[in-house]
């Protein structure tokens, strides 16, 4: 894997080669990574996976025509041939009046913010094996756990660098450490599975392996005795493990390409009340050690924290340069790309601001409802907002969690769900998209 300095030098040479081959403009992206993953099951090593790779992607523009190519051969002569091939492809491509590099006057200038994403620690396989074994051993010791799907521990590093023909050059590295366990529990002929995992940038922030294992075992056992519930309308509470999926549907609906194609259920909602007044949703690419933190976006624009939803009001769209041109707006620093193809749009670290009440108080006011810990299937229509997904979790009766439930469906429309959403105050930053426990009133539950 190249160092960041070498990667930026290679990108600069590639962009220059593209210009020399006849491109009017170009940008190039480098991505390199290496990782080790150790998986154990029933106290024995099952497999060790080690991988390392690097790729370069080049995008060129000839007038309003463009083409993208990528390669894993980073030898200088191979990259010169890549540049010539990309320019030849662009000359044959159809014109696109919205294509082009990001506006030069909006590029990140000066030093990028230090987000402390890389701890430069790469544990050896024996250390990862010990961590995975500790998680599984603790999980299997939980009363009621009868089998294991295994536990794993991984570590890796990645580096990203970007260079453009109109003056941007930058890069950053990030480390990743994770641990997970998945257990099976059985009672009276019924089997259930559940698990736990944790992923962080710095090793010193990773949860203790035994704690992850114990949580995996406890979750699996808690699901025993699950049954259906009577169908009907009821309030649905989303555990933080699954609450982020609701925010994910919002992010898809406010992405610039969806708005430009007019395929979003929030198409006419710019500046309008989408959530209740007590709901604010923040996108923070500068969170220190954040799982999706980034100092610049996929086009070289600076990133900055901001409210996607401010006191319930939709503040705007997430735009790359192409969708911004289609909508006659300015890009917002949300461009994201891989080495192949043009940029798309992505949020960074997103969270729902905590509400005024505790989780217990949020649940305590519910006479009969559903507490969801698992969602199944992809039954969401991004054009209409219609929502229908399989779910599992626990029945809520008289403000308390009662028996576990399974084989049910929850349904509604995301516009209504957003307006009827309220949040507890138990926000923790454990995922890329984080929510407190959230309550959605008036959903339809299909069971018996």
From TrEMBL:
One of its GO terms (cellular component) is cytosol. Residues 125-224 form the Metalloprotease TldD/E central domain. GO terms for biological process: proteolysis. InterPro entries: Metalloprtase-TldD/E_C (IPR045569), Metalloprtase-TldD/E_cen_dom (IPR045570), Metalloprtase-TldD/E_N (IPR002510), PmbA (IPR047657), TldD/PmbA_N (IPR035068), TldD/PmbA_sf (IPR036059). Gene3D superfamilies: PmbA/TldD superfamily (3.30.2290.10). Residues 231-447 form the Metalloprotease TldD/E C-terminal domain. Residues 26-90 form the Metalloprotease TldD/E N-terminal domain. GO terms for molecular function: metallopeptidase activity. Belongs to the peptidase U62 family. This is PmbA protein.
